[in-house]
Amino acid sequence: SKETGIVHISTGDLFRKEMADETELGKSIKDKMDKGELISDDITVELLKKNLPESFILDGFPRTLNQAEMFKEISDIDLVVDIDVSDETVIERTLARRICRKCGAIYGLNIKPNQEGVCDKCGGELYQRDDDNEKTIKDRLEVYNNQTKPLLDFYKDKLVRIDGNRTVDPILQDILKTLKEKSLYM
Ligand code: AMP
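Above: the input record for the complex with adenosine monophosphate. Below: its predicted structure, written as tokens.
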């Protein structure tokens, strides 16, 4: 998003904002979020619709075939990027993830802050998401395999697979190269 200027929309971030703002929706989804279960397709698509700019990079959406079908009625997707990572690496990386409460910067296995628990960029406090514990991460992987993986076939004509078992920079460069090839980014 920083490279291309295209707005990044994460349905997980939208849900976490609802929880932080303690809205009725936020309160009603907390239990499911903590367990790593999916929020209903209707609620998810409704919230996304309210926050959808003209051009977007979707992150964490769609997660079910039904969401993909519903989204087809709302907008078009040009490209689907599958950042493919082994389960062990997902678990290792997700357990190490820390997020800045103030600016949202994300730290991880190979991106450590200079001072533990403190954001390099703004000095904010770093926290760990409630659902980034080993049990919930494994449950989320199972949800992914059962409900989200079938989307690879649904989007097979728009799909590009990127090897995610590498550091950030080569992954980013591969994605940008693909966007350029498809004339989605100059
Ligand atoms: P994420 O930030 O993408 O890891 O998502 C965190 C949690 O938010 C998920 O485990 C779900 O509980 C919920 N969530 C995010 N995106 C979706 C979605 N597209 N459909 C249903 N639930 C979602």
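Notes for the reader.
The chain has eight helices and seven strands.
The CA atoms of residues 11 and 60 lie 6 Å apart.
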